[in-house]
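S1.2 Input.
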Amino acid sequence: MIDNMFELETATMFWLTLAAGGWLNNLIVFMINEFNIKSISAAKINSVVSGCANFFPLIGAILADSLLGCYSLIWISSLISLLGLILLVLTVTVDGLRPPPCEPSSKFCNPPSPFQYTVLYSALGLVCIGVGGTRFTLATMGANQFTKITHQATYFNWYFCSLYTASFVAITGIVYVEDSLSWGWGFGICIAANALGLALFLIGSRFYNCDKPQASPFTSLLRVVVASVRKRKAVISSESADYYHGVKGVIAEGPTKRFRSLNSAALVTEGDILSDGTIISPWKICTVQQVEDLKSLIRVLPLWSSSIFLGTPIGVQLSLTVLQALTTNRHLRHRFQFPAGSIIVFSFISTVIGVTLIDHCLWPLWKKLSGNTPTYLQQLGIGHVLNVASMAVSALVESKRRSAAASHHQITVAWLVPQMVLVGLGEAFHLPGQVGLYYQEFPSSMKSLATAMVAMLIGVAFYLSSGVIDFMRRVTDWLPDDIDDGRVDYVYWVMVVIGTINFGYFLVISWFYKYKNIVQVVKSVSSE
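S1.3 Output.
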């Protein structure tokens, strides 16, 4: 039974991730080559789509918890994704759904018509919805099938192994098929992978333990805000007995003094509690635990915001690096040309290798030399530094690429590898650090929200990166349609400045941040 669950869940994750990675990782090249969209505009659209693909899982988690349940959301989202992929295939096989190819002897290309843009955006919207409803929901549903922690840990290991393996195959294999054979074949493989993943998931229906939807944690947080506003004139008490602790009537420790104005939401006033011990309205009085849950969220918001501005330069870099790769010499052999969209695979590889080396080599050495285990904030700080270094390297490489282009030469695509390696190593530090920080600092009732916050900040960061590119185009001449005529290196130097300022902001809020739960964890680990 357990073996069947592992196999079905991880196989479903593999094929659905393969389907998503096949279209997402080569989207810029697809829009430039097949829809005649200018390079910088394609980069902006790619940032928005990437933002949606990373932000929608949060919406999916809310729907799964409060309305549909994990099982229904996964199969519905997989079906929606399949419809979107079918529409993408139609755009490259039906002539009327995309503009005619550019004339080889002319630089003029017919742009997409409003109808063709509508079809393209509809297809991208459908596949983004599919990703949002499956990527993290599969992890939650899979873990819910097992009661033993060891089984859950094993499942998560296989889940991430499946996720990374599928991403690697998509970035290399499917992207190569799209560039070398045809987009129809590449998207066709995505359709087959999506259909197979959906079929495997449905085959396992009789094995699944499906939890019933419950109230969303956001509803509880909103109730605290509403109740505190309604009681804003109440006198805050310092006695624990004056606060509502739940229907069991067990008086625990009172609310903390931080964000004291929110304590009024749990303050018992006349008419709040009925004679049988129940409350008159959850929007008028909340439990102390609900108040503390909201405080936990507020406490980490400054750190969370610094991570948004950590991810924004990365979003800009990923889009511009693909454009840079298109202008380089990508011929590794006479018959093999490295796909431009596959350049980000080096970031992926360095992240995977980096996480392994950090966990098995760097942290044990750190503990041996200092006597302490590094905190999550220290991990985040290292990630900030590597991110800024990656932007600086990108600027220097772009200066070299632009100088070579001015002399009618091309640098090899290998020059772009170091910046991808650095940004990947940075993610190996700050992504696990963020997940661990939020998961440890949030109360048990909000663990799902803690992990979802990472996906949400990535989505917001990609949205902002699109805004940064658009702003640069409006106020400077650094990002023309032909990057050889622009100053992409200046854009990277601006990202260095933004990253440095954000790192300073991170250091300030880290200095004043007081751990809630991690201190005990660090001490226990250090004493081992």
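S1.4 Remarks. The two ends are 36 Å apart (CA to CA).
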